[in-house]
Automatic annotation (TrEMBL):
Keywords: Membrane, Signal-anchor, Transmembrane, Transmembrane helix
Annotated Pfam families: Na_K-ATPase
InterPro entries: Na/K_ATPase_sub_beta (IPR000402), Na/K_ATPase_sub_beta_sf (IPR038702)
Record's keyword annotation contains Chloroplast: no
GO CC list: sodium:potassium-exchanging ATPase complex
GO biological process terms held by the UniProt record: intracellular potassium ion homeostasis; intracellular sodium ion homeostasis; potassium ion import across plasma membrane; sodium ion export across plasma membrane
GO molecular function: ATPase activator activity
Domain of life of the source: Eukaryota
Protein name stated in the entry: Sodium/potassium-transporting ATPase subunit beta
Amino acid sequence: IDLVPMPQFFEVFSNKIFTLRIAKLIGFYVVFYTCLSAIFFLFLSLYLGTLDYEIPRFYGKGTVIGNKPGIGYQPWLIDDPDSTLIKFIPNKRSSYAHYVSAIKEYLAKYENTTNTRNCTGNESNLEIVRDWKLTEERKPACRFDLKIFKDFGCNETNDFGFAENKPCVVLSLNRLIGWMPTELEGEIPKEISDRYQKGFITFNCYGVHDWDKKNIGEIEYIPSAGIDIRFYPYAVMPNYHQPITMVKFNNLIKNVLIKVECRAYAGNIVHDIINRLGLVRFEIFLHDSIE
Ligand SMILES: *[C@@H]1O[C@H](CO)[C@@H](O)[C@H](O)[C@H]1NC(C)=O
Ligand SMILES: *[C@@H]1O[C@H](CO)[C@@H](O)[C@H](O)[C@H]1NC(C)=O
Ligand SMILES: *[C@@H]1O[C@H](CO)[C@@H](O)[C@H](O)[C@H]1NC(C)=O
Ligand SMILES: *[C@@H]1O[C@H](CO)[C@@H](O)[C@H](O)[C@H]1NC(C)=O
């Protein structure tokens, strides 16, 4: 390799014109980048200054968050997140204990009633959002009470029905900030007409295929009308209690996999299987097993 001899190397730098050029170049870049970063931080701070830390700017129709809720269910296992299968051996606690603890964990937040109030009559979370910017003093979120589920056989004593082979499944709408359910318009769908009440989001569950419909048995809805809309809209607030409803499968046929679909009904809930909106699917499998 042809190395440049040291003296010659320094000779290049000792050239005055060359040194001047380098200095100019360095000077240019220092000024350029200083201005660039100044502009960047100026706009960043302007943008951050307009952000609201509690209500996102882009929610609702036409945004990534959207305005059409999906449905979630419990028990959903954190260590098996892709599974939608609830599978257990009748009367064998070890086969369903993980579902029971998942539900228990999910429901634990409702036992914390700090920063909540007992909403009765026409009181609802709507007042909080309406008064948001008007008053410094915010009303606490409405408290969601689990008593009705306990009374109707979805409680810890009976392992949320699993101990009686009548599993309880929790259903809820995915939280969309600012979303408010509207009343059903026109004729009430036949499948919920005997349970629907004004001011509620009513749910309906059924077997997906004909054979599932035959195997699914009686389904109990707790409460029968579904979710009281007083807990909407959702806004970021301390200790928000997300409203839920439960379905209890009272006489599932054993040893067959049962595909279940549950739909929620309100004026502005759409049912879309492809995008999983307004409905949820899961499977239940009670199997007598020798393992
Ligand atoms: C709620 O009901 C009370 C009376 O019970 C009434 O004074 C109040 O105006 C009502 N509020 C709304 C928002 O309807
Ligand atoms: C709310 O208050 C009513 C009557 O004041 C009571 O019957 C009900 O149990 C209370 N609910 C909760 C969740 O504390
Ligand atoms: C729990 O559910 C069982 C089964 O339906 C019922 O007998 C019992 O009274 C319930 N327990 C409570 C504390 O509500
Ligand atoms: C209850 O919720 C509040 C938030 O509103 C929280 O600060 C508090 O630590 C919670 N208490 C318990 C026992 O988790």
